[in-house]
Amino acid sequence: MTCAPPWTRPVAIILPIPVAPPVTSAVLPETEKRSETKSANVCSSSVSRGAFHSPLVDNLLSSMLTFRLGARAAREVTPIRGHRREEGQVRGTAMASEASQTGAAQESSRLEILQAAAECFEQRGFSGTSVDDVARMLGCTKGRIYHHFGSKADLFAAVFRLGMEMNFAAVEPLRHTDGPAVARLRMMAEEHVRQMVTTKSFQRVVWDGMELLMRGALTPEQRDECLRLQQSRKRYSTLFRTLMEEAKADGDLDYGDLSVATQVFFTCMNSPVFWYRPRVADLRNDQDTVIEQVVRFAMNGLGWKGE
Amino acid sequence: MTCAPPWTRPVAIILPIPVAPPVTSAVLPETEKRSETKSANVCSSSVSRGAFHSPLVDNLLSSMLTFRLGARAAREVTPIRGHRREEGQVRGTAMASEASQTGAAQESSRLEILQAAAECFEQRGFSGTSVDDVARMLGCTKGRIYHHFGSKADLFAAVFRLGMEMNFAAVEPLRHTDGPAVARLRMMAEEHVRQMVTTKSFQRVVWDGMELLMRGALTPEQRDECLRLQQSRKRYSTLFRTLMEEAKADGDLDYGDLSVATQVFFTCMNSPVFWYRPRVADLRNDQDTVIEQVVRFAMNGLGWKGE
DNA sequence: GTCTATACAGCGATAGAC
DNA sequence: GTCTATCGCTGTATAGAC
Fold it and tell me: In what residue span(s) does the HTH tetR-type domain sit (chains A, B) (predicted)?
């Protein structure tokens, strides 16, 4: 402690991530650009663009259709000043009613935007990402994005919610399987971790969203909606929590305080969103290995003693 | 999946956190302001301002003294344009040499800034925090901050490094204690988690810093310094990693892949920076309980079967 | 050593052309 | 439905007063 170690030397870092200048009229021929700013194995996102466009997502998306109200990025609690619409009113022009018309095409466009947004938010976080960033990743301008989403916060919320819905869809059906509580918990954990790995970008946004939700102060009108989001999260964690209690009562698990255990358990299961980088070769097997190990760690952490 | 669950309903949220307008000439009488934007138990930071100003930190800080080079917040890899100094040159005016002069006073001021910065970065992240935010928390203007730190990135880096140094100082001495590898690992883990809880703001910044480091692309000049930071992190995790291997060889631990295990193990131990909120009453006991539980979870996760 | 004043770029958001 | 152009605020950083 007395002698200064090597890493104590004067040092400087840059933190923001370099990106290309915004698109204006210079058209990008290839759809995928920006790869030059990423180093080889630094996460070109776990899911390749095309592969992700699964029926599951389409189904989910169609049940999700609409987002109202352009939330404002105001930093004040009191009378929200800023350069956004002063009335604080509904936007997004009641998309639900339009859904019957253009339907599929519009949704497909929305989905593509969500996908790109997820990747941007994953890489730079909410405040670090500009709407231009997302547009640039899509090879278009922000006009397109603002046509579909009322604000940047709306866009983020949409990604956030889609991520949550995918989790529910994957995990909830397993809740009432047969067998002891531990076994069900294990299966659900496995499915949850699989989500983290296969839809990593979205799940990372869910994580960030939770954090923002936890510390975000709200204007009265927005409180309701935020509460609803938080409750949905709570409902999700309860799926696991109840099984944890059951399994402990059965003598299959052994942990101390339930709250602490839940927190650590989830952080554990979610951890791949921070460190997982898919290896190109043998993707499937790679993922399975990681999932298996993470689940094992998490279950052991709860005091599970094996089958 | 077919019937839309309640949380599928249209929703809107705001994400950014409201703050008071920047300080200009309106002087704040009390040093601590801004409390009105926080809800009761939402993290008024684990360490109270005064209590944190410990000899340990002072010692660490004096061995740390100097930061060179104003890192730039440029978003381009190629010729860095922007409104910062174009030479990309050294700043911070060789503070090490000045240390003998004003010494203590200057350092105390620096430390106070670091403290406030840690709390701001903890709450809003790097890009979400403005230099004005930090100044406002201190009840001063950004002039003071820019006098001590060349740029926002410099400030962040200083907080980051101080956090890391505290970890090293707490954990490294335990490396060569007597006893089996598992026992030592357990002790180190406990000390690490204690750091997470007692210096939470700083540790949260360390976490964010690691993430930024992982995905940040660099201009050639800055690559070196960044690499150094990363290596210091690596060195830290190696402290644990080697013991993990030893203990596995001893038959005291049982995990699969070392890399995955390390990642999950750390994420686990670090988790309090995300969810821990100190309860005012009986702080000490509260912390100890949390620490004990987290360590237990983490060790169990590695396949530890108890004493 | 800290404050005031100011420059200048970036970004969120809108209007209106196509 | 997407693009262009533009507005106005926010935020980083600097210069110079005190």
Answer: 107-167
pTM, entire model: 0.78
State the amino acid at position A160 in one-letter form: F
Is B245 contained in some domain?
yes
Can you say whether the dihedral through the CA atoms of B2, B5, B9, B15 is positive or negative? negative
Whether B56 contacts B165, CB under 8 Å: no
Interface contacts A/B by beta carbons within 8 Å = 301
Question: Is residue A218 in a domain?
Answer: yes
Measured in degrees and rounded to the nearest 5, phi and psi for residue A157 equal -60, -40
**Residue ranges of chain A with per-residue pLDDT less than 50:** 1-11, 26-53, 61-99
Supply angle C-alpha A21, A24, A27, rounded to 5.
95
Q: How far does Cα B266 stand from its chain's mean position?
A: 14
Which CATH number fits the domain that encloses residue B214? 1.10.357.10
Give residue B219's Cα distance to chain centre.
24
Mutation site, A3, A7, A15, interface B, largest B CB count within 10 A? A15
Q: Which residue carries 């820019």 as its tokens?
A: B146
- Evaluated on CA atoms B109, B112, B114, B116, the torsion sign reads negative
Of B81, B158, B150, whose CA–CA distance to B121 is shortest? B158
* Upper half-sphere CA count for residue A204 (Cβ side, 13 Å): 26
Shortest distance between the Cα of A153 and any Cα of chain B, in A, equals 6
Rounded to a whole number of angstroms, the distance between the first and last alpha carbons of chain A is 46
pLDDT at B183: 97
User: For A271, which DSSP code?
Assistant: T
Q: What is the mean pLDDT of residues B80-109?
A: 52
Q: Does B54 touch chain A (CB under 8 A)?
A: no
Residue labelled with tokens 């640039």: A136
Task: Give the span between the Cα atoms of A104 and A53, in whole angstroms.
Answer: 13
3-class secondary structure for A184-246? HHHHHHHHHHHHHHHCHHHHHHHHHHHHHHHHCCCCHHHHHHHHHHHHHHHHHHHHHHHHHHH
- Cα B135 from Cα B293, distance rounded (Å): 37
> In the structure encoding, which two tokens stand for residue B134, read together?
């930090």
The alpha carbon dihedral of A262, A263, A268, A270 has a sign of: positive
| pLDDT tens digit sequence for B28-45 | 444 333 333 333 333 333
Gap from B280 CA to chain A (nearest CA, Å): 17
The whole-angstrom separation of Cα A143 and Cα A146 is 5
Separation in Å: D17 C1' and B139 CA: 21
In a domain, B153, yes or no: yes
- Predicted local confidence at residue B48, as pLDDT: 38
pLDDT of B159-207, one tens digit each? 999 999 999 999 999 998 999 999 999 999 999 999 999 999 999 999 9
More confident residue, A83 or B262: B262
Residue-number span of the structural domain to which B148 is assigned: 48-71+102-301
Number of domains chain B is built from:
1
Chain A contact for B139, CB < 8 A?
Answer: no
